[in-house]
């Protein structure tokens, strides 16, 4: 033992102090897989809605599954960084951020309308006077989480590229936490406009969370790679393959409907270079967000 550590060890023994546990590497083949869902909607609703996915993975992988919804995107990124979760459903931006801080790899992205891509939309309150992107100048714009792609990075880029509007200078940017919160705040008039995922916006309206007559869609973004599922890179190779195969093979309509997907396609890290390029346009430092 080194002298300093020996002294500390002796003091611990003398006074009955427990030695601090040394951090262990995460188990490459755990009996329990902790699966984090993207915290873009109400947590209890997400857990309840994805019980069929939990049961499917337990049956297919032969392991116990624990579904987790963290308080926000940042806490999910940190949980993955420190090995407290094994799989996670990320947004493209939160994936890129997590990848910059930890050893993870994407393995599947959902297919919607026959393709593994999606769009963001920008909406406005009908009474706000906002009828175009340019009208957002001087207004209040609602975004979801800072680490969200479709309710932050993409709509912010759209406003910059399409109307030359920069957050904090040309309009007020407010972060309200989730996509459904963006829709609700815009519909209630707490924000003049907002950005969110087109799929989640439709889901919010279908659930009756907002009065569809109180919002108008100003426009859509281009197509971007879908939200990736990612896993710890230090999982056992055989287990990683089993996990990927399990997702690609999902054909249960209830599971897919709950995930708002038609199926899953194989995805790679290179597919998210477009997200890194958008971050560079906005001068984002993914490692410090």
Automatic annotation (TrEMBL):
GO biological process terms held by the UniProt record: transmembrane transport
Keyword Signal: yes
Recorded GO CC terms: ATP-binding cassette (ABC) transporter complex
InterPro entries recorded: PhnD
Signal peptide from the UniProt entry: 1-23
Superkingdom of the organism of origin: Bacteria
Keywords recorded for this protein, A-Z: Signal
Record family assignment: Belongs to the phosphate/phosphite/phosphonate binding protein family.
Protein name per Swiss-Prot or TrEMBL: Phosphate/phosphite/phosphonate ABC transporter substrate-binding protein
């Amino acid at each position: 033992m080194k002298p300093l550590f020996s002294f500390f060890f002796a003091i611990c023994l003398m006074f009955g102090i427990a030695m601090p546990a040394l951090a262990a590497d995460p188990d490459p083949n755990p009996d329990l897989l902790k699966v984090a869902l993207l915290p873009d909607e109400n947590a209890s609703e997400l857990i309840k809605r994805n019980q069929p996915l939990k049961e499917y993975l337990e049956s297919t992988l032969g392991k116990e599954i624990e579904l987790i919804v963290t308080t926000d995107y940042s806490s999910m990124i940190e949980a993955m960084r420190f090995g407290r979760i094994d799989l996670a459903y990320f947004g493209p931006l939160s994936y890129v951020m997590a990848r910059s801080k930890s050893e993870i790899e994407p393995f599947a992205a959902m297919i919607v309308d026959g393709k593994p891509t999606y769009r963001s939309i920008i909406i406005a309150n009908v009474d706000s006077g906002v009828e175009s992107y340019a009208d957002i100048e001087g207004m209040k714009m609602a975004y979801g989480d800072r680490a969200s792609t479709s309710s932050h990075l993409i709509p912010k880029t759209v406003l910059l590229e399409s109307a030359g509007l920069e957050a904090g200078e040309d309009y007020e940017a407010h972060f309200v936490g989730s996509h459904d919160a963006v829709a609700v705040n815009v519909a209630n008039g707490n924000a003049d406009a907002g950005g969110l995922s087109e799929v989640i916006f439709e889901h919010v309206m279908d659930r009756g969370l907002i009065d569809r007559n109180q919002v108008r869609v100003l426009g859509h973004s281009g197509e971007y790679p879908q939200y990736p599922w990612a896993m710890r890179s230090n999982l056992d190779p055989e287990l990683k393959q089993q996990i990927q195969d399990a997702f690609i093979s999902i054909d249960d309509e209830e599971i897919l409907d709950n995930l708002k997907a038609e199926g899953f396609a194989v995805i790679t890290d290179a597919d998210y270079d477009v997200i890194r390029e958008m971050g560079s346009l906005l001068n984002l430092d993914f490692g410090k967000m």
